[in-house]
């Protein structure tokens, strides 16, 4: 896979930016707070549908603007593709793959990127759950079916944990746990295996 072009409009500190990437290594040099990390953020956005720096899409929009966009042109297995993102202050984002609207969950695996930043020292120093989350994200890009099973697995875990709390509070019967355990075991075979 090769990134060919990145186009930003009202994204972070950019009014407009168009970068044509070379086939080799691309290096961004500049003073602090000039937008180098914003370029990397836009590329990561194409892979995951969200920023690595913020959970609020509105933070991506230039201060005085109603919305922003980020388009990335890339070649994968000899086929040219385009991912487009539009963010608005007053409504949900739009994601387009080759000019067709897609849902965020369908984005995973369309474009792959791995980002390492100074904040990623938690991979080494942090808790194991953070490393598992990082690996889950990377595997999900390579195997989109893994991502769907991961979502299902996490949903079952949350529901089972809620039931356990109710059982502890004597608000639910312990026998209800069997059906959740069965579902969990079936999903965990794919997730863990």
Query: In percent terms, what proportion of residues is strand?
Result: 15-25%
* CATH hierarchy, class of the largest domain: Alpha Beta
- The strand order across the widest sheet is 2-1-3-4-5-6
Can you count the beta strands? 6
What is the CATH architecture descriptor of the largest domain?
Answer: 3-Layer(aba) Sandwich
SSE-based structural type: alpha+beta
User: Element order, helices and strands?
Assistant: EEHEEEEHHHHH
Work out the count of structural domains.
2
How many helix segments?
6
At CATH level 3, the topology of the largest domain is Rossmann fold
Q: State mean pLDDT (0 to 100 scale).
A: 90
Low-confidence stretches: none
* Helical amount: 25-40%
By oligomeric state, this entry counts as: single chain
Shape: elongated
Write a structural description.
- This protein is α+β, with helices and mostly antiparallel strands.
- It has two domains: 2-116, Rossmann fold; 143-192.
- Helix content is 40%, strand content 23%.
- It is built from six helices and six strands; from the N terminus they run ββαββββααααα.
- The chain has helices at residues 36-48, 104-107, 122-125, 128-142, 144-168, 177-192; strands at 2-11, 14-20, 67-76, 79-88, 94-97, 100-102.
- It has a six-stranded antiparallel sheet.
- Helix 4 (128-142) packs antiparallel against helix 5 (144-168).
- The mean pLDDT is 90.
């Amino acid at each position: 896979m090769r990134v060919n072009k990145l186009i930003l409009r009202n994204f972070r500190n950019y009014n407009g930016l168009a970068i044509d990437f070379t086939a080799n290594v691309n290096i961004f040099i500049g003073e602090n707070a000039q937008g180098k990390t914003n370029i990397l953020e836009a590329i990561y956005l194409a892979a995951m549908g969200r920023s690595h720096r913020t959970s609020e899409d509105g933070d991506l929009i230039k201060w005085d603007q109603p919305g922003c966009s980020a388009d990335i042109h890339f070649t994968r297995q000899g086929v040219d593709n385009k991912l487009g993102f539009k963010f608005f202050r007053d409504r949900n984002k739009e994601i387009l793959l080759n000019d067709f609207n897609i849902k965020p969950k369908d984005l995973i695996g369309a474009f792959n990127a791995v980002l390492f930043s100074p904040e990623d020292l938690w991979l080494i120093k942090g808790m194991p759950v953070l490393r598992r989350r990082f690996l889950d994200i990377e595997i999900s890009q390579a195997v989109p079916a893994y991502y769907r099973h991961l979502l299902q697995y996490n949903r079952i875990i949350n529901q089972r944990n809620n039931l356990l709390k109710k059982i502890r509070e004597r608000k639910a019967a312990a026998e209800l746990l069997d059906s959740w355990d069965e579902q969990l075991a079936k999903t965990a075979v794919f997730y863990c295996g």
